[in-house]
Amino acid sequence: MATKVTLKIGDLTKISIDVIVNAANASLMGGGGVDGAIHKAGGSTILAECIQIISKIGSCQTGQAVITNAGNLPCKKVIHTVGPVWRGGTQNEHKLLATCYQNSMALAIENNLSSIAFPTISTGIYHFPKKEAARLAVDTVSNFLNENPGKIKEVVFVCFDEENLTLYQQILATQKM
Description:
Layout: E1 4-9, E2 19-24, H1 33-42, H2 44-57, E3 65-69, E4 77-82, H3 93-110, E5 115-118, H4 130-147, E6 154-159, H5 162-173
Parallel strand pairs: 1-6, 2-4, 2-5, 5-6
Antiparallel strand pairs: 3-4
Helix pairs in contact: 3-4, 4-5
């Protein structure tokens, strides 16, 4: 059975799915954008687990992914990944962003989670160009699904605004997923 890939516009914290991905910062302590919204909606148990993780690893490095409970969210788990800050494309940003998607999906599989929802990682305050980020997200997810057939049953790209939704629609229209 092929993986179902869909697009939604709206609030990632309201998606009922196995796991949502948080575009986190290295401290995992919450922040602005998606990260702040997930911590706020999910409640204190997510933060408590993040504190335990950070006490063991020091910080979550760019591209790395870790998993916590989902607190009050309608999903089962939250995967936190740290996207790259855009520095003009000269600091390995593309590879690091791809690694966020790869590590998140690998962690989902490792934890027997077969449906996953992604935000538009690094396109907010980290300023990754939206079109490049969308193309990279779709290509990376597509390649991962081809290399791991049947492991992930559903992928949802959750866009916060119409601009990102349109970019993803255009890219997915040319992709065979």
